Amino acid sequence: MASIPSINQFSCNTLQKSSDTSKFTVKNSVSPVNRVDLSVLSIKKCVRLRRNFTVRAVVSDDEWGPDNEPVGPGVAVVDEEPTEIEVLKKQLVDSFYGTCRGLSATSETRAEIVELITKLEAKNPTPAPTEALTLLNGKWILAYTSFVGLFPLLSRGGALPLVKLEEISQTIDSGNFTVQNSVLFSGPLATTSITTNAKFEVRSPKRVQIKFQEGIIGTPQLTDSIEFPENVEFMGRNIDLTPFKGLLTSVQDTASSVAKTISSQPPFKFSVSSTKADSWLLTTYLDEEVRISRGDGGSIFVLIKEGSPLLTP
């Protein structure tokens, strides 16, 4: 394979031959000159002949080329640089680390987050989000908020160490103009969710009015099988549970029966207070994977689309 350092080994006419996508292609625009030997006539002299030709490096999609040969030194592979928006989004998501969705963020961290959000909003690729409803569709995971109304919920993990707040999400169906907010909890024996259903109306290119209709406490999904260890460590001593195997098996059978009974019950629905039924939301940034919204009182919500690589730790 011809590379740039070895180009002086070929004639100007020879350079025109190149059907291999991993070699240089030369296009003559003047009548050909027979066999100008570059070993005698340098490239500089060849240029002086005012020969008009173009050199184009074509890189094959197959890094080994069509003949299963390694790509030569004359072909450079250039990684695409991330855009400014991509860099800002990555910096923003990184700044959420250790903040518990905003609950434990320090004043310095909040200031940094607000600065990054402001920079992203200035580069919003979707200036009229309500006119691009297909982008709003789908499930969005809450990554950060400054809304103090959610802080008591976010702090439950510390108050109840056995209960974990797994996820806060918002699912939008623009076809039916519905919004569903959901909170997923998990415990050692069960998982459950609390959701609120709402309708929304478009009020401006960026603003929607939301009216909540009902709340639902999902039926706890208990594990139908509990695995007990053969031994446990207590106060520095290793306790063998083998003698209690019969009793533990009985507990397991009881738990399985309870799981089946509870899981068969319908979810519990409740009405939303009229004083908290209406709200509005202003979408200030929107693309395929990040949404930034501002709500009542200037609260900020940063949500990431389910499936986005930005959700990967």
From TrEMBL:
Residues 88-303 form the Plastid lipid-associated protein/fibrillin conserved domain. Signal peptide: none annotated. Its main location: plastid. The keyword Metal-binding does not apply. It is found in: Plastid. One of its GO terms (cellular component) is plastid. Keywords: Plastid, Transit peptide. The keyword Hydrolase does not apply. This is Plastid lipid-associated protein/fibrillin conserved domain-containing protein. It comes from Buddleja alternifolia.
